[in-house]
Specification:
The chain has one domain: 3-Layer(aba) Sandwich (Rossmann fold), CATH 3.40.50.300. The chain has 148 residues and is α/β, with parallel strands linked by helices. The longest helix has 13 residues.
Length: 148
């Protein structure tokens, strides 16, 4: 079954604090209706992408996530569904995804949260949620759309 984007996040949600950003991620994971969701998290450094992933983890019953910037990928099994957290920031070419086993992860149940996923849009499968993080006065606006 496909995961539906709520009207709230489609229109944009203002998150004034890190805890609000994490709570939004938690709500997305808790409201997940399918067994697989791929999310491309896009926005500037410090916009709350890793914080949002922490909320996703909480919504799946997984504690403590960290930025995968240096490891490129972190796997978090043990929740209601597994969470795989990628960071494409340091990758140079789409071919680098092969060494990470990216395609294999996309076939498994769970959430694939990909920071800087917009670097390689051709690698994202249809149905991927593009989640944009924009820093604004008073916090960040987070909105989602589905990649066709």
């Amino acid at each position: 079954m496909a995961n539906r984007i709520s009207d709230d996040i489609r229109a944009g949600v203002l998150c004034a604090t890190e805890s609000e950003t994490a709570a939004l991620g938690c709500a997305v994971a808790a409201g997940m209706t399918g067994d697989r969701l791929v999310m491309s998290l896009e926005g500037p450094l410090g916009a709350g992408k890793t914080c949002f992933v922490g909320g996703l983890a909480g919504g799946l019953g997984i504690a403590d996530v960290s930025s995968p910037t240096f490891a490129l990928v972190h796997e978090y099994p043990g929740g209601r569904l597994p969470l795989v957290h990628f960071d494409f920031y340091r990758l140079e070419r789409e071919d680098d995804l092969v060494a990470l086993g990216f395609d294999d992860y996309l076939r498994e149940p769970g959430i694939c949260a990909i920071e800087w996923g917009g670097k390689f849009p051709g690698a994202l499968p249809p149905g991927t949620w593009r989640v944009a993080f924009d820093i604004v006065p008073g916090g960040r606006i987070i909105r989602a759309a589905i990649v066709r």
